Amino acid sequence: MACFVFVFGADCIAQTKEKPNTEIQKMIREVSANNIEASIRKLVSFGTRNTLSEQNDPNRGIGAARDWIFGEFQKISAACGNCLTVEKQTFLQPKANRIPEPTNLTNVIAALKGTGDPARIYIVSGHYDSMCTSPTDAKCDAPGANDDASGTAAVIELARVMSKRKFDATIVFITVPGEEQGLLGAAHYAEQAKQNSVNIEAMFTNDIIGGVTTHRNSPNRDRVRVFSEGVPSNETEQQAATRRSVGGENDSQSRQLARFIKEQSDRYLKNFKVWMIYRRDRYLRGGDHIPFLERGFAAVRFTESDEDYTHQHQNVRTENGIFYGDTPEFVDFEYTANVARVNLIALASLANAPARPKNVAVVTTRLTNDTELKWDANTDAHLAGYEIVWRETASPEWTNSVFVGNVTTFLMKDRSKDNYFFGVRAVGKNGNKSLVLYPRSVR
Ligand SMILES: [Zn+2]
After folding, report:
1. Rounded to 5 degrees, what angle do the CA atoms 46, 109, 145 make?
2. Beta strands in 333-428 (DSSP E)
3. Alpha carbons within 13 A on the beta-carbon side of 23
4. Mean pLDDT, to the nearest integer, of 417-442?
5. Residues paired with 171 in a beta bridge
6. Where are the beta strands (DSSP E) in 209-257?
7. What is the pLDDT of residue 17?
8. Among residues 248, 247, 253, which one has the least CA distance to residue 233?
9. Fewer beta carbons within 10 angstroms: which end of the chain, N or C?
10. C-alpha–C-alpha distance, residues 232 and 249, integer Å
């Protein structure tokens, strides 16, 4: 339970020792590696899912994959009394670097509407397109079992399990094409969301989460990487000036999201861990979280702990005795299921927590060794109050927290903002906690 300390003597540490939520525990058990395997094999069966491949062939090409995913979401929705809004978001992508002719791209989307705060949205995504060695080769076989049938299959499985429950906020399950052509499906979705002022509080992309079997004996086998950026992609010059002056390069929304995922996942999964990677993405690579980051949304990327490049973006072949190709034999379905479970824990925890606080500020009017924080009142009916979190400036994760009640300002005596980093999060009556918001400074 949260401890109610309003005056500081002893710090109130380790606030997240609440009992695990039994409904989340049930959902973790319902995530099925067999279902994920079946989805991956089905997606591979379309031969290629290159974004430029056949759109109207029922058996081969990206159109067949698109329609199959749409059908899966519809089946899942039928099983929950039409609880999902399933749609195809089609747009004409103009000529681009890897798009030789204007091409229709279709995001396939299933939304589970929130029961309390439906305008607040959490997105979980995978890309259903694939490629062989050349991103513009629409004819070659491009099985894309790991990249990224694994992420797509995880999203479908999450929709299946989570649609049997209700959540306060809305969860949107999306699968997108055009990733290999420049993150095009995700960019279209993110741009629409920005233009319509959609309140996306967090976005997860799952891309190459298959746990390639050639690394089965890696010491990192028990974890998934979660990539989060430090300096925000959409940082303004004024924000940069503040950051250069007093820090904050380790406290972007993306990084708070990564910390949240790790903190919650650690509560439920004992044998599978979140490995936070403090960078936006890997060298020479990008992913569908980036268009969201560029538009000011908190986003992270999930990717297996070790990659094998002989089984990504390769024409399927054997050369000098070495097999190349992204085929299902190299996917560990149980590993993929564990990554899906991490997603599930974080999504369920977020969607049943209050919205994160807004306009959190640290007051910098005068020189003082106290720290004064203020924020806007949260209108959530289920709000219990707020927690102040803090840590040593050199610490990677929040280490301390205190519940301060349902207030919108708090003065921490004798704990200087010069010596610690602070944040604020909202706490629901059910004990669920929101993402942390790092304060901007106000004079
Ligand atoms: Zn990918």
Report:
1. 30
2. 361-363, 371-374, 383-392, 400-405, 409-412, 420-428
3. 12
4. 95
5. 112, 122
6. 223-227
7. 57
8. 253
9. C
10. 8
User: H or E stretch including 118?
Assistant: strand 117-127
Per the DSSP assignment, residues forming a β-bridge with 348 are none
* Angle at alpha carbon of residue 155, lines to 186 and 262, rounded to 5°: 90
Tokens 């080769």 belong to residue: 137
User: In this structure, what token pair is assigned to residue 212?
Assistant: 């390639």
Band (pLDDT 50/70/90 cuts) for residue 365 is confident
Among residues 84, 162, 166, 154, which one has the least CA distance to residue 125?
A: 154
CB 374 within 8 A of CB 409: yes
Measure 153 CA to ligand 1 centroid, in angstroms. Answer: 13
Alpha helices in 57-100 (DSSP H): 62-79
- For ligand 1, the distance from its centroid to the CA atom of residue 116, given in whole angstroms, is 34
- Residue ranges with strand state E in 289-380: 299-304, 317-319, 322-324, 361-363, 371-374
* Interval between CA 268 and ligand 1 midpoint (Å): 28
Spatial separation of the C-alpha atoms in residues 401 and 409, rounded to whole Å: 15
Query: What pLDDT shows up at residue 442?
Result: 83
Tell me if 52 sits within 8 A of 58, measured CB to CB.
no
Q: How far away, in angstroms, is 253 Cα from ligand 1 center?
A: 23
Per-residue model confidence as pLDDT tens digits over 85-98: 999 999 999 999 99
DSSP strands (E only) in 195-351: 199-206, 223-227, 273-277, 299-304, 317-319, 322-324
Q: How far does residue 211's CA lie from ligand 1's centre (Å)?
A: 13
Amino acid letter, 49: R
Residue 277 backbone phi and psi in degrees, to 5: -115, 120
Phi, psi values for residue 393, rounded to 5°:
-65, -25
- How many angstroms separate the alpha carbon of residue 151 from the centre of ligand 1? 9
Residues facing 203 on adjacent strands: 123, 299
Whole-number pLDDT of residue 12 = 44
Encode pLDDT of 4-57 as tens digits: 443 333 344 444 457 899 999 999 999 999 999 999 999 999 999 999 999 999
Where b means 16+ CB within 10 Å and e means fewer, 98-121 reads bbeeebebbbbbbbbbbebbeebb
Report the share of the chain in percent with pLDDT over 90: 93
Q: Based on the number of CB atoms within 10 Å of its own CB, is 199 exposed (0-12), middle (13-18) or buried (19 or more)?
A: middle
How much distance in Å is there from the Cα of 41 to the middle of ligand 1? 17
CA–CA dist 425, 176 (Å, integer): 32
